[in-house]
Amino acid sequence: MMTHTSVANSLAALGHEARLAIFRLLVRAGHDGLNVGDIAQELNMPASTLAHHLKSLVDAGLVVQERVGRQIVNRVDYDAMQQTVSFLTAECCVGVKLTTDDAA
């Protein structure tokens, strides 16, 4: 179950231009994911910079990494992505009743 903290961590990880680009690239790659070298080449990003940003996405639970031979394959955790989106939209359009303190 997503909490305010876990959703905030996910959104903070996506709140950087480079990490958002990495995440969107991995979304396009689908369930096969991409290895680190392919991501670096596609985004023209140095390996050390990419590693830093991937760590943030992994720590936020949005990306999972798997060692396949000598390569690290990165994939979006689609369940985590869907849970984040669902958390944001769960109470869409249900209305808000303001208290008199909030209206001031």
Automatic annotation (TrEMBL):
Source species, domain of life: Bacteria
Isomerase recorded as keyword: no
Positions of the HTH arsR-type domain: 1-96
InterPro entries: ArsR-like_HTH, HTH_ArsR_DNA-bd_dom, Metal_resp_trans_reg, WH-like_DNA-bd_sf, WH_DNA-bd_sf
UniProtKB keywords: DNA-binding, Transcription, Transcription regulation
Keyword Plastid applies: no
Gene3D superfamilies, A to Z: Winged helix-like DNA-binding domain superfamily/Winged helix DNA-binding domain (1.10.10.10)
Database matches in SUPFAM superfamilies: Winged helix' DNA-binding domain
Record-annotated membrane-spanning stretches: none
Protein name in the entry: Metalloregulator ArsR/SmtB family transcription factor
Organism ancestry: Bacteria, Pseudomonadati, Pseudomonadota, Alphaproteobacteria, Rhodobacterales
